[in-house]
Each structure stands twice: as structure tokens, then as C-alpha cells.
Amino acid sequence: MADPYNNSAHTPAVTRLDDSMVTTAMELPGFRVVRSLGVVRGITVRSRSIVGNILGGLQTLFGGNITIYTELCEQAREETYRDMAKHARLLGANAIIAMRYDATDIMTGLTEVLCYGTAVVVEPTSR
Length: 127
Prior knowledge:
The chain has helices at 50-62, 67-91; strands spanning 31-46, 95-107, 110-124. The chain is elongated. β2 and β3 form a beta hairpin. Helix content is 30%, strand content 35%. By secondary structure, the protein is an alpha+beta fold. It is built from 2 helices and 3 strands, in the order βααββ. A 3-stranded antiparallel β-sheet has the order 1-3-2.
């Protein structure tokens, strides 16, 4: 299977893509989109170990935040976000707009987490 992260002939953009250049909005304040490079995404499938499930089950008895699952979700989101940003950088993007997360249960105990957005090249607007 071809690697979707490494099949681009685009050259890197001048402005660096960092967390401040990723937004859930359709535009980035102070910048204008000069080129759209398409959808970029990161994906992971996660499960909690049997020990984690036991600890999570015990935490549910006491109510409140089930920290072991919260940590699992945060790790999955962070991983997919970083993969999405890597994909965008490889395409030459310096920003990502319309970023979203999605999660789907594949089967009991397995969850797919997807992070996606539109990779774009932006320029600062004239002041």
C-alpha cells in the first residue's frame, strides 16, 4: 500500500505550520488562503489493556472522571493530530483549516480516532 504521507512533489511552505496555524474555523484571522492542498488526516485505533479496563471499572464505582480512559482518549487525539500536521507539512502546507476529530467504535474495546482538516497555504493579510 502506498504511503499517503510521502507521495507529494510539493515544496515546503515558507511560513512554518505550528499549533497556532491550525483552526477549526474556515479561515485563519490575519491570513488569507492562497492555495488549498486538500484533505489531510491522522488515524489511530486504540484499546485499553485488560489491567486498564479493570482499573477503569473500579473508577466507575466511585463516579467522576474516569482518568484512565481520559488519558487514553487524550493520547489518541494527540497522536492523530500530530499525524495530520505531519501529512500537511509533507504537502507543503503552512496552515490547516476546518480541523475536526471523529471517533468510531470498531468493535468492543477498539476505537478508531480520526483527526482531519484542509491543508492550505496562507499569506498574512495586508495591514
